[in-house]
Every structure is written in C-alpha cells, then in structure tokens.
Design goal:
23 helices, eight-stranded mixed beta sheet, alpha/beta, six-stranded parallel beta sheet, 22 strands
Length: 591
C-alpha cells in the first residue's frame, strides 16, 4: 500500500512538473512570437523616395474607416482583397498633392466595390489633386463602371488591348421571397406607415409596388444624371452621347470601339503602361518606379497635429442602428457615450456627425437623437452624409444645425414598420404543436407560433402610427419646417441628396471637407483649428492584445457572404433586438 501511495504521489508530482514545464514553454513561445510581432510592427517603416507616384490601387470594398489589420491575419495572408477606408484614400491623395516627392498618381481601380457617394468623394479629391499640376494616369485590364467613373478624371486613360470597360447605367433589382416564406409556412405580420416604405415588400410581395417603382425610378434617374454629367465633362462628350454609349453596352465591345468612342485614350499592355509612366517621371527604362500605396502613405510624416483648444471632431456612425453597447455597427449606448464625451470636451468646439446608415431600431435612433439634441445646445453639430443616411439614419441626423450631403447620397425614408413572424404554418408542416395557459388576455402577446388576433393587430398598428408621428415631429422640428409640409416628403420615400436639398431635408451639397468648413465657420474658428476623428481606431498592438472572437467571426462572415452580409445582420438584429424598425429596404441592390 505504501509503494502504491509513493507511485501515485510521484506520478502526481511528475504530472504537475510536466504541466509547469509545458506552460513555461508555451509562455516563452508566445512571448517570443509576441516580441517578433511587436518588433516587426515597431521596425516597419516606409520611406518615401524622390520622384515617386501614388499607386492608388483600389481593389475591393471601400468603407468609411478600417482598423489596423490584425497582425495574425497579415501573417497568415488571404486571397481576397481587404476593405479600404475612405478616410485613408482621401488622406493619401491629399498628402500626395502637398508632398513634392510625389509627382503624380497611378490609378489602378480594378474591381472596386463602392456606392456612388463614396466614389464622388474620391473623385472630387482627385480633381483637387490636379490643381497641383501633377499628373494622373489610369490603367486597368477591366474597368468597372465605378472604376471608370474615377478613371475619367485622369489625364490619360489606358486599357489592356484585350480588356473590357463597363458602362451600363444604373439598375435596382430587389429580391422578393414571399413565395419562399409561404412554402416554409412563415407568415410575416407587417405593420407600417408610409406609402413608400418598401422595406417590407420582399416579405409580402413578389414584385415592386407602383409607389416603390416610382421612387426607385426617381432616385436612380437623378443619380445617373450626375454620373453622366461628370463623365461627359471629363471626356469632352455630351450627356446624350454618354447615354448612347451606355446603350451600346461597351463591356462587350472591342477596345478599338472604346478608343474610337473616346472612352479611353490608348491601348497598352501593363509593361507598356509602366514604360509610359517612366517617361513621365523621366527615369530610365527598366528602372524600378518609386511608388507609395495608400497604406504606406499613412506612415509618411506630415507636420504633427496636436489637439488644441480649437478642435473640430468627426464622429463616425456607420452601419445598422441597433440597441447595445459595442463598437460594431451603430449601437445606441456606445454612440451616446461617444457623443457625451465630445459634449463635455472643452477643446472640441464643433462636431461633424458622419452618418452612413440605412437605419435600424427606432428605439435606438431616438436615444441617439436625444444625445445629439443635448450636444447641439453647447456646440455646433454638422451632419456629413455618406452613401446613405435614410430612415433611422435620417432620424439621428435631422436635428443637426446643418446637413451636408453628396448629390448622390440616399436619404429621407421617413417612416417606420414592424415585422413579426408567425410560424404556425411551419410548426404544422413539421408536426410541432403548442398549447398555452395564461392569466390575462395579452400574456402571450408576441407568441410567434400563432397569428395576431384582430384586437392585437389594431393595437400594434396604432403603436406604429404613434411612432411614425414622433418621427415626423422630430424631423419637422429639426428642420424648422411645418409638420404638414414635412409629411409631404415623408411616407417612407427615399430621396437623393440633390432632391433632398430642393425640398429642405438637406442644407447643401458637398463632401466631408465642406462639412468641416461649415462647422469651423459656425464655431468662428477661422483657419486656426485641427481635426480629429472619433471613436479612436485601434492600433495594431491593440488589435493583437484585445479579445477578438466576435470581430473575427464578423470579419469571416463579411468575407464569405460579401454583399449579403448586411442582409444577414439585419435579419439577425430583427431576431435578437427590436421588431420596430426605421430603415430603408434591406438591400437597395443598385448596380
């Protein structure tokens, strides 16, 4: 027995010692890897050379801002294009304009993915870059329509002799899944206010309503008019000629046709394009072309900017509006906290509220609206609208002191709806039944295994109408407009920024730079002010050290679901959060 105990004790001690040794080895390995990563991050430094070009390669989605890449992800690598931040792209172009070492821009737009207002922001910055008398040249094997819209400002547009160029106009192709829900036995119980509130149509119809078709026709036509005019001016063509070319579908035409139609200037292979670029830089053949990417331009030093008593803050709000306290999407508690910090910061003299959102929870929108109302009591608040600031996105914008939008921004959509599923049919199809015992008439209100009764329907509709009236009141008061006049522009209708300015939903047209100018003017800052962005973006070290499970899952879903990611998140939020929504259609699907 004593020998047995000795053996057991020795085994236990050996196991503990082994665990300690293994833990130490694992810790040393982790610390070594950490040290290597930190060292690589710390020593990673880009030096801009003389006679360089900004290599503006745009390949993949463009979002408002992007955090520093997770070091582990960058080590593993990926075969898909990473998202680029609009602020980084614009910042790189501005640095290139003011840096004597940069002689021009080599624009490689490839298959970028961005909405019209984002493209307009970049295009306007490229036009300002040309004021420096530096060159812009564009090259691609295939130009998407958005990529060509940017390339049209170039001094010379070149294309692969066997390449393609897309110019087709605009189309919206929403997806309807009513019959699919019927086959699954799912009935969506819809409560809404607004003739044009089409977000619920995919659940209840197999085609657009006439009202929805009319509003889509209106905002697509207005958006195309700006794109067409810009292309015509840049390529010395008439708007009518652009329409004619779009109807010829250049994507399937020869490159000789593109050349004859003045859509491009020359046909070159990439090696020949690089030789042409060398002649512009006056460097020898086969010499490496000095260049800097958007990511590399972030590390190019400029005059240090320190926070001063005259600070203009840019507060970003991008994504779906939901209830919560996280930093992803627009979560009301987190956003209200950010707004409150800016309100209390005595150095911040004005705030730009940058909104890129199709809305979401009506309750969360109201919370953010209230926080903005408090903020504007102490300092000017100017809204800068991105691609979309509609429904809940307009709700949180409407009471700002001024609203600035791109002509092609989608905004308005003042209306709300409720969508509650009834899975009774689904349950019966698979042989599942429920029963109930309740103490009061409405004890089981919201039970998704049965439909609403008539009294519940009336109460729910009345509740939605009450919410709509509040939304309408907020907008009318915020825009200093009679409520009955605001009602004419509401009903859930979507407007372009250009149309919204004409009817008073927006004050003026322009991008972020114009919004900053307006805010500085309102705060009487003159030219002596600095601009800082909020919330603060995480550094690479922060990305390494923070718990990243949720963000890693979100990133993975984004890469695999692509454009369907937003629809997935909307349905997820409907399931997990608020049934009462103030948002535009789930997917405008504009191509």
């Amino acid at each position: 027995m004593k020998d047995f105990l000795k053996i057991m004790l020795a085994s236990a001690i050996g196991f503990v010692i082994a665990q300690v040794i293994l833990s130490l080895i694992a810790m040393l390995f982790f610390l070594g890897m950490m040290g290597s990563l930190v060292n690589s991050v710390a020593t990673e430094k880009f030096t801009l050379q003389e006679n360089s070009v900004l290599n503006l390669r745009l390949d993949g989605p463009i979002t408002e801002r992007t955090p520093e890449q997770d070091p582990f992800t960058s080590m593993i690598g990926a075969d898909y294009p990473s998202a680029m931040g609009l602020n980084d792209i614009v910042g790189a172009i501005r640095k290139a304009k003011n840096n004597d070492k940069i002689k021009g821009i080599y624009l490689d737009s490839r298959m970028l993915s961005a909405s019209m207002a984002t493209l307009a922001e970049i295009r306007q910055e490229l036009i300002k870059f040309k004021e420096s008398d530096k060159f812009i040249v564009a090259y691609a094997d295939t130009y998407s329509q958005g990529g060509y819209y940017l390339a049209s400002v170039a001094d010379k547009i070149a294309i692969n002799p066997q390449g393609m160029l897309d110019l087709h106009g605009l189309a919206s192709t929403p997806i309807f899944f009513k019959d699919a829900l019927d086959k699954l036995g799912i009935q969506m119980q819809i409560f809404k206010v607004g003739t044009y509130k089409s977000a619920v149509e995919p659940f209840t119809q197999n085609e657009m309503s006439e009202a929805n078709r009319a509003q889509i026709t209106s905002y697509l036509t207005d958006t195309w008019s700006f794109l067409r005019q810009d292309l015509a001016e840049s390529r010395s063509l008439t708007p009518a000629k652009i329409d004619s070319l779009a109807n010829s579908f250049p994507l399937l035409q020869s490159t000789d046709y593109l050349l004859t139609a003045n859509l491009v200037d020359t046909l070159l292979y990439e090696t020949e394009m690089k030789d042409y670029l060398r002649t512009l830089l006056d460097i020898k053949e086969d010499t490496r072309i000095p260049s800097a990417t958007v990511a590399e331009m972030k590390s190019v030093s400029t005059k240090p900017v320190k926070k001063t008593g005259n600070t203009v803050a840019i507060l970003y709000a991008s994504g779906n509006i939901v209830s919560g306290n996280g930093s992803s999407e627009i979560q009301d508690k987190y956003m209200v906290d950010q707004i409150e910090k800016l309100r209390k910061d005595k150095d911040v003299k004005a705030v730009i509220f940058r909104i890129n959102s199709g809305g979401g929870s009506a309750y969360a929108s109201e919370q953010i609206w209230k926080a903005i109302a408090r903020l504007k009591e102490e300092k000017p608040v100017v809204v800068s609208m991105g691609d979309v600031a509609a429904s809940g996105g307009y709700y949180i914008a409407c009471n700002a002191d001024r609203i600035v939008a791109q002509p092609t921004t989608l905004t308005g959509s003042i209306g709300i709806f409720g969508a509650i599923p009834n899975l009774e049919g689904t349950s019966k199809k698979i042989g599942i039944y429920t029963d109930e015992v309740k103490t009061h008439e409405f004890s089981d209100f919201g039970n998704i295994t049965r439909p609403f009764n008539e009294r519940e329907r009336k109460m729910m509709q009345a509740y939605i109408e009450k919410g709509y009236d509040l939304f309408l009141t907020r907008c009318a008061e915020g825009r200093n407009m009679p409520k009955d006049t605001m009602a004419l522009y509401a009903e859930g209708r979507v407007w372009t920024g250009n149309q919204a300015k004409e009817i008073g939903l927006v004050d003026e047209l322009g991008g972020m730079e114009r919004a900053i100018e307006v805010a500085a003017e309102m705060a009487n800052l003159g030219k002596s002010y600095v601009v800082f962005e909020y919330p603060k973006m995480r550094s690479r070290i922060d990305e390494l050290l923070r718990p990243a499970r949720e963000d890693l899952a979100a990133q993975t879903l984004k890469e695999y679901l692509g454009d369907s990611y937003e629809l997935f998140m909307i349905l997820k939020n409907l399931k997990e959060q608020d049934y009462i929504q103030a948002r535009v259609p789930f997917d405008l699907n504009i191509r």
